[in-house]
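Sample A.
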Amino acid sequence: MARSQSPLDPQDRNACPRPPLALHPVRAVVTGGAGFIGSHLVEELLGRGDAVHVVDDLSTGCIDNLAAVATHPKLRVTVASVADPLVAARLCQDADIIFHLAGVVGVQRLATEPLAVMQCNLHSTERVVAAAAAAKVPVLLTSSSEVYGDGQVPFREQDPVRPGATEGLRGGYACAKAMGEWLAFGHAEQTGLPVVVVRLFNTVGPRQSGDHGMVLPRFVAQALRGDAITVYGDGEQTRCFAHVGEVVKALADLAMAPGAAGRVFNVGSEIETSVWQLAQLVRERANSRSPIVRVPFAEVFPVGFVDPIRRVPSLVRLRATIGWAPSAQLSAIVDELVAAGRAELGVAGAASVR
């Protein structure tokens, strides 16, 4: 659905208008397309009439995430790693645009496998943007709000990134993501590769797993089982939660938006909720008796692992470019996940709920 555009934000008034990365319908490649966000993006693009080629090594994704579109005539799936230069080169064949989402996510994985997380995220992006530049295929690259580190909120795209000290593991993830952005823009400068970079904030919704530290699905599962809802730290840290359905619509809209190429965009919600408030909301909406328990960071993460106090995006640039921003109510998102969790776990009448 077409949306009217708002005037550019003040700091972008002198930006030179550029054509969109592509125009629907397209032949799109989605790396990491069997993952949580990737699979929703695949459904969004197919719904817009695009042909979609998913490339995923299934290291964190799951082919079942594509069950709803498994038989779609315009869907093709390749199980392979885009960190392989030959795979990266092949995915550019017959492609009009690449949505690069492949990577390793989750603070739990970062705490236990920091080297693998940093190397995978950097090398996969390095291979994809190099192959895309050689084939002259535009790229929408998903990055992370982690690159802002302990910067001033709300985070604005043009502000310097502050990923942190090299002695801290979390900063390594942020630097790998930031370096991926610089590599993409380096190719844009030297080869003319059309690039849009999207910094995703806390994205939540169906199919998200709590296995790697994702807070909302973990809380929902704990509440439905009647287990203690475990809040790491004091719970006063705030996050902004956006529904995955709105996030992938924003990705697709940015790829087709005039003036987006060559720029960074925050995509997420701007409504802050503390982790403690989130735990209370989940317990209430799940009608659960689960206690909420604070767990010191030192019992969960390595010594020195830090959690940013606030992470809030500025969405001025996003609204100015596509005319809207994610706005789904967190309570409605929690209700959706509680209903899905009950169906999956079979706990609708379990003793863990009243």
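Sample B, a different protein:
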Amino acid sequence: MTNLDHGKFSRVTTTFHSLLALTVFALFFTGYAIAFNTELWWLVELMGGTAGVLAVHRVAGFSLIVLTTFWVTFMLLRSSSRGNVSAVLPDPKEDTAAFVQDVKFALGRADERHPNARQFAGYTADEVPLLSYVGKGVIAIFTVELLLLMISGLLIWRKSMLIDLYNSQSVVMAFVAFHGLLGVIMMMGVMFHTFEHGFHPAFYPVELKAFIPKDLVPHGHEEPDAETTGIERLRLRPTWRVATDAMGVLVVVGIVSVLLASISYGGYPIPETLAFQEGSVLRTIGINVGILVLFVGLFLSAYGNVLRARYARQARRNEERRGPTTADGGFVEDD
């Protein structure tokens, strides 16, 4: 099995990944349309005004809870999945060593990166872990953020659960601000995640293994005797450099703008009626650039599922062309 095939997802995992992405994008669009309603007034109007935005946000939040509950149950009850759980847990010894060597490598104090940090450098799957320490960190951060977002979101929605504490306006504002801060951090992470997995030269324009389940991958892609990943045979697409440069600029502008706006913006607590007022031109442009990056991520997710459908259809056609199998496992030749 080559390293480029390393860690292919199951059909359930690819479906969950797509549904989770759709839910999270819906939460981002609605949540930031509420928080930055001055700059994103068009998004509020697009979703039917204040009432529509809040309704979609709550439905998406409930869907996230259902999806997460299903996934945790699925991973714990399925024996083959329990092994994958241990593969994504940080290894204090190896992952720390990989991080330290990466820092030394960046500073010119090491000749090469640690094996636990390189996924596409010509090594086979047996020589590197399923996830690098960076991948494990992303999963850990996203997991904690999603859990805290769900808890804080429920507490904001159902104030009766903490009615005694909610007698203080400061507590209300603290819950809302904490929920918004988590959302800002996760939004920045998702923007970077979109850039990392959509514009990596080995994946551009989308990382297919996140959408095409491993049972649809032709067996010919698995080469147990391969000495390298096969990455040396890849050819960059003509549009890769321009698209990567443009997307990189958009991601940086979006992340910085959302971060600075969240620090300086005085929109909390969320008012009952959203008022569209004049805002800073630069802040308005920057926040809308961030939303544009999220739309690109949503488009790439949809595009990945379109490719998955095409791939499955082509696989069925190829199977039909090969004809029925014989008793000894061979194929019947067409006359």
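Observation for Sample B: The longest helix spans residues 281-322.
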